[in-house]
Sequence to fold (615 residues):
Amino acid sequence: MSKQSLSGKPRSVAEYVRGAFAPLAYLHPPLNELYPLDEDDYDPHVASVLMEFKAIEKQRRAFEATFIRRMIPILARARSAALADYRAGSTPLHIGRAAERELKKLASVIRSLYDTVGLHFAKRARAQVKDEFDAVELNDMPELVQYNKTTTAAKVTAISTATRDGIRRSLDRALRDGTSSDIVARDLKDSYKFSSRRAKLIVQTEIVAASNAGTHFSLNKFLRADNMTKAWLHAGDLRVRHSHIIAGTTQKKVDFDKPFEVGGAKLMFPGDSSLGAPPRETISCRCTVTYKRKSSRRPLSQIQTDPTIGDVARVVSVVKPKPKPKPKPKPKPTGYATEAERNAAFKKLKKDYAKFKKSLAARKKALNVKLVQTHKDLIKVGDDLVKAQRALLRDPAKIRALESQFRKLQFDAGRWSRSLRKLDTAERGFFAKNFSQGVNKLVLEASSSAQGGMIGSKTVKEAQTWLRKIAGKQFKHAPRGTVQVKTIGQGRRAYELDGRVFIAPEDRTEILIHELGHTFESRNKGARDAANAFLKKRTVGDRKVRLYPDNPDLADEFYKEDEWVGKGHSKYAGKIYSHKGTEITSMGLQRLYKKPGNFLEQDEEFVRYLWDLFN
Fold:
């Protein structure tokens, strides 16, 4: 079961990378062994490249369709040439050479692929260094031009030679076995050597090689190669070769100008065959390379013999004694030392709310006046617009003016309505700001369960923000330990159990706050004792009554009579539990969140209890 903080942010960098790349978790060996994600081994450079891997793959795939379309006709012409020579009675050697001659025309396509893709990724590497994407031209990198030229020739030769030899072997075998000419012609026509699948395989393989070459030679041109290392990074799924998985584990710190050793072959980067790498290490490869600067710090012996300005500054900064930090000022004491101070502070809260309520009422009245007048104008303009549209002699200019006026009035009516809805929650903001001193750091966590989805992030965020403001820094009755908020199936009733809250995804914020109120009592004896003392004081002399007299299944649930309903509460607030818990804190918090002003006016004693609890 995954867990995250109530704010939705990951608790650590390692957890973030695990969550972002969870689909790679089924890789064997495990992803944690390939890319250690513990805090001690975490490499932010590798993590950043992992996050870019999908973007790199997307850019590579953008080139595929163009070059596949250009390559398929050449393979088709090679197949036609081979079929024509076979039907003319040529020998297997001549048939293979006929296809080879056509395949030589692949040179222009492959050279164009290497130049286009290589230049794009060279610009990309340059942009990551200097933020100048378009400041690179192919002629600026003669090493890349020469590499593309040499590689293209080698690739075309390898493709055409492999095709020629394959055709010759197939025809020789058919002659030995006595296969009929019709079957041989059909097999030659349907051969994989001339299919679109082979065109796609060639293009995908060469795009990976060209993209890695462009990045390599761009960095070699614009950065100091002797000051960089490189690491092999594979795609991280079940299609990766075993030798490339091992390379991703072992080849993590190779000098820039040194080749990787992969499966007994040497490659400067994935897809490279300039050092004699066999096709088994390059075909269908999707790997890439991560580059990293070496540490700029040099050994002290080198600094003494050949110091630089940076080395001297570093040595001086180390030798120079650091000034002693100024003592931090002691925090000013908060809270209320005497009962008189507490009474005065609560009176000030009521006085400030009275002023706020008066100004709020004035603003609501002004907005209602505007809204009513806007509705009247809407009706009048609407009637005029209908008459103008139904008139025998229609005036288009007048109709357009009335339509424009009508739309403006509609916009104004929506604006006044939204402003009134905001004022409905303004009381909540006032009490969150003025109820307690400072902001409390409650430790809350949210998680999902197998029965339901994750609780809404908006609900969690609202409950967290409001509770932390209401509780204040002086709140001594916070739940011990961490409070977990878990999700249950839709339609189920929310509940609290052993300091954990279970809530359905569709429940509102006030329901979550109600259940979190129970955790104050279940996990803190002081809060539980205070709630029981308030309930006892409030219900002195009141009798014990069944909570649901008409429901025989709930005959064992009772509550203490009081003026709960008369003061705007539900009788559920006086419920009696066998485990000494109450509904006092939870019901009080729920009403304080939902209708704080009405709560203070109807039941000042209850609000004072919550105020004393949190302050």
